[in-house]
Amino acid sequence: MKFDPQEGYVDTGFRKAYTPLVSVYDTASKEMCQVRLDEAYEAGAPIEELNVTPITMELLRTVQSALDPSDWDNNCQGVIKSQLRFITRSHLIAATKAPDPFVYIASFAYQAARLAPKNPESAERFYKYLARVVTVYLKSHGYYMPDTIYPLFIEAIANTSATQIDKVVKGLHIQIGISSLKKYLNSYVQLNDGQMDITSNKRIASEHAIPIAEQLSVTDEDKAPKDQDKEKDEKR
Description:
Elements: E1 2-4, E2 8-10, E3 21-26, E4 31-36, H1 37-42, H2 57-65, H3 74-82, H4 84-94, H5 101-113, H6 120-139, E5 148-149, H7 151-159, H8 162-173, H9 178-184, H10 206-214, E6 217-218, H11 225-235
Parallel strand pairs: 5-6
Antiparallel strand pairs: 1-2, 3-4
């Protein structure tokens, strides 16, 4: 498995990314043993091989449960119920490869967005939902992300690449102004996440994620409140 700039973490060539074995401590035998990554993670065992926290169906359902009913529909629900599990499984393996949570969750967002409902209105709801998932995932680790979901963010998930999503997310995280961030997206500048000391492979509990998800909102304008106030002052 490798990181593709367009698609994120994908299988390489003819070789499929089989679930690897990891070393975990067996309390019965009091020895280290080799078990499948998915089995070890589901059992709640500490896994040193994980670089970042895997995205889970539990987190996806938690974020969805915090949505207003008007922000969701049966088409979106169908994608979660029947299609996203495959991507979460492949990204469990990707969690052993990703260098940081930003590029990891950008990969997930890109691939999940490709499964958006065909209906345009449903697809728009789904893209906004994915932006919420990305935000909750990062804020749950202590990374700063704005509570407002901007059109720039939604557009990146819907129509760009994993690399571009990563750029947008890192730009929002380090609080680059929206207008400046748009300029960065057309350059080759690589943004740093700015908080390398935060533990990035902890598990995300639903009770911790739900209040974060509930405080998020979506705006139709690519302007932070401070930018709007500045624009009003300039007009005066």
